[in-house]
Structures are given as structure tokens and as C-alpha cells.
């Protein structure tokens, strides 16, 4: 069997905890090359996975016969490195948020179209088993029409997660472009779009730094969202939730309520308006402390094998990105921002 040859660009925590081990668990994949500007980090990962180490991604793209790459870099590098990889003839799995602007995201999609290669964005929330179950329930019509929702994603901050700690790129606007809203909020934006099956068209938001020091990005964001059909809801993203993470979502519907990742034992809870409750123990949910398979890497590899367009395509990444861009604009202007 000819194995799919993979390169991973960026050897920080997301590569160490998700991309590299998940690729390694797939027998049809061979990790051929890794790259990081920190030579020691690249060498360590190369030794662990039997790969060649690089400190310049351009050399990796030029010298390795790679089929695909994962882009696991600071947000400001997602666009240029993804475009370079596509132009070098590689399929690309890019971490989220896919870019720092609409124009940059559109350039990535254009590069994909020119190359004929695949572009997938790492929004793993929609692949989590509780969320797939929720999609099934909402689509069944059991609860009737969704009226409102609330969703949140928060933890104590990336300093306890990233390899660079409190002084790392997550906290530098020049590299991160946005803080908690881009790190966590974009995940929930993508999830809400997926579960509701429609687009968010209006955004109002407060995006601010409430606790973190020595940073020029936000650590909290609270948004009001409205969809095309008129569903309204709130989204909160935070780097100041202590001591535990929150990844909960609740849909309030005509005939009842759907609660996701609120109950410690049952990740999906249906509460009908007559008082009936249905409890589902569906899969485990990944946290910073307890990693589970994201599903993203497996789905990306399956798309390469089958030649099919990824579910989480560049266009999907762009639509989710536009919501966080609108949140930033709303926070600055104090106005509701409409997304065309």
C-alpha cells in the first residue's frame, strides 16, 4: 500500500497533542517531515516520529515528496503558508481560525482552486460525537423549531496549554490577530452554523481584555447572534474560566430544550415541555487536560484517499471567520454588524 506522506508545519502543542499522534495512529499515513523555527522542537518531534526536521517551511515544501501538510502555526501565518503549500501541490489541513481577514481567506480558497488540491480547516467541534448526536436530534424535528440558543467555550487561558506559555504568540496581536474570540469563539461559531444548518447574518459583540496582562488581544468576548431565519442567541468565549473548562451549548425550541455538554454524566440531554427527559451518554469530549481523537485528521486523510471535498472546506472556514471579524467590528463601533 502506498502510504500518504504527511508533513507537519509547526511543532507546538496542537501538533504534539493532536496532529502528530493522530496521523501516527493511521496505518495508511507516513509522517515524513516536521518543521518548526525552534530547531530543538523540530528535532525532538522528528526523532519521535521518524521524520526529517526542518526549520524553514519553504525548504520542507521544496525538498520533500509530500502529499499533504498540516499547518499548525500562529494565526498570522495560516494564510501565507497555506497558499505556499497549495501552490507546491500539497493538500492542506489548516488550523483555525483559517486566516486574519476575509481577503486572506479568499486568497487561500483561490490557491486551492488553482492547485486542484484539498483545503480543510480544523474546526473539530462539529465532529465531536455529542454534537453529531445533537445535529441528528435537531434535524429530526423532535423539538420543533429552534427559537434561541446560548453557547460558551472557555478555559483559564492558553498559557497553561501552549509550549510558549504566558509570553507566547497567543498573546501577541501581530501573530495571533485575535485572542479568545479567535481561539475559542470561532469554534463555537462554526458549531452553531453547523447545528442550525443556516448562516449567521447579524452580530453584536463586546470583545475586551478583562484580566490577562502584557497582551494586546482579548481574553473575553460576549456576542449576540442572529441567523438568517431569525433565530437569536448568545456566544461567549473566554480565557478566564477557572478552574474548569466550559464547552456547553443549549437550544431552546418550540417543544423542548436540548442541552449539550452540561451534565457530567450525559453529554446530550433532551427535555420535552411535558417534563420527559431523555439522556444520552455519547462519547467523550476533548479538553486541554484530557485529549481525545479530534476526528479532524482522520477525516482529512479519508478525503485525500477518496478525493472528496472536505466537509469543513475553505468556504466553511471563511463563513465562520466572517462572524468573528463582525464581532471585532461591532465591539469597536458599538453597532450591530450585518454579514452579507
Which terms would index this structure?
single chain; 340 residues; alpha/beta
Q: Which residues form runs of ≥5 with pLDDT under 50?
A: none
Strand adjacency order, main sheet? 14-13-12-11-7-10-9-8-15
The secondary structure category is: alpha/beta
Rg, nearest Å = 20 Å
Secondary structure: helix percent: 25-40%
The major pleated sheet works out as: 9 strands, mixed
Number of strands: 15
The number of helical segments is: 10
H and E string: EHEHEHEHEHEHEHHEEEEEEEHHE
Q: What this model shows, in words?
A:
This protein is an alpha/beta fold. Helix content is 36%, strand content 24%. It has ten helices and 15 strands. Strands 14-13-12-11-7-10-9-8-15 form a nine-stranded mixed beta sheet. A six-stranded parallel beta sheet has the order 3-2-1-4-5-6, sandwiched between helices. β13 and β14 form a beta hairpin. α4 (75-87) runs parallel beside α5 (102-115) and α6 (129-140) runs parallel beside α8.
Write the layout of secondary structure elements.
Elements: E1 4-9, H1 13-24, E2 29-35, H2 39-49, E3 52-54, H3 57-63, E4 68-71, H4 75-87, E5 91-94, H5 102-115, E6 119-121, H6 129-140, E7 146-154, H7 173-176, H8 180-196, E8 200-208, E9 220-227, E10 232-238, E11 249-253, E12 256-260, E13 268-272, E14 277-280, H9 296-306, H10 314-333, E15 337-338
Parallel strand pairs: 1-2, 1-4, 2-3, 4-5, 5-6, 7-10
Antiparallel strand pairs: 7-11, 8-9, 8-15, 9-10, 11-12, 12-13, 13-14
Helix pairs in contact: 4-5, 5-10, 6-8, 8-10
Amino acid at each position: 500500500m502506498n502510504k500518504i506522506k504527511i508533513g507537519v508545519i509547526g511543532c507546538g502543542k496542537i501538533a504534539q497533542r493532536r496532529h502528530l499522534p493522530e496521523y501516527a495512529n493511521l496505518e495508511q499515513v507516513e509522517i515524513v517531515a516536521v518543521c518548526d523555527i525552534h530547531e530543538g522542537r523540530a528535532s525532538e518531534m522528528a526523532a519521535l516520529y521518524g521524520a526529517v526536521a526542518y526549520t524553514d517551511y519553504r525548504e520542507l515544501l521544496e525538498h520533500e515528496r509530500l502529499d499533504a501538510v498540516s499547518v499548525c502555526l500562529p494565526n498570522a501565518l495560516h494564510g501565507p503558508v497555506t497558499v505556499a503549500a497549495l501552490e507546491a501541490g500539497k493538500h492542506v489541513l489548516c488550523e483555525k481560525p483559517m486566516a486574519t481577514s476575509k481577503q486572506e481567506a479568499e486568497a487561500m480558497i483561490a490557491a486551492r482552486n488553482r492547485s486542484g488540491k484539498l483545503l480543510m480547516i480544523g474546526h473539530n467541534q462539529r465532529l465531536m460525537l455529542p454534537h453529531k448526536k445533537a445535529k441528528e436530534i435537531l434535524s429530526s424535528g423532535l423539538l420543533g423549531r429552534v427559537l434561541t440558543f446560548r453557547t460558551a467555550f472557555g478555559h483559564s487561558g492558553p498559557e497553561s496549554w501552549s509550549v510558549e506559555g504566558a509570553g507566547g504568540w497567543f498573546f501577541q496581536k501581530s501573530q495571533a490577530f485575535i485572542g479568545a474570540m479567535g481561539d475559542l469563539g470561532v469554534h463555537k461559531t462554526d458549531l452553531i452554523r453547523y447545528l442550525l444548518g443556516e448562516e449567521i447574518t447579524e452580530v453584536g459583540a463586546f470583545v475586551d481584555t478583562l484580566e490577562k496582562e502584557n497582551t494586546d488581544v482579548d481574553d473575553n468576548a460576549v456576542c449576540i447572534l442572529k441567523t438568517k431565519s431569525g433565530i437569536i442567541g448568545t456566544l461567549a468565549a473566554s480565557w478566564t474560566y477557572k478552574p474548569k473548562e466550559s464547552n456547553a451549548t443549549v437550544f431552546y425550541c418550540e417543544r423542548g430544550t436540548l442541552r449539550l455538554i452540561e451534565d457530567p454524566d450525559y453529554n446530550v440531554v433532551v427535555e420535552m415541555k411535558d417534563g420527559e427527559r431523555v439522556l444520552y451518554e455519547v462519547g467523550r469530549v476533548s479538553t486541554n487536560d484530557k485529549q481525545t481523537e479530534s476526528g479532524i485528521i482522520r477525516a482529512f486523510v479519508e478525503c485525500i484517499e477518496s478525493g472528496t471535498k472536505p466537509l469543513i472546506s475553505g468556504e466553511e472556514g471563511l463563513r465562520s471567520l466572517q462572524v468573528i471579524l463582525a464581532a471585532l467590528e461591532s465591539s469597536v463601533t458599538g453597532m450591530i454588524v450585518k454579514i452579507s
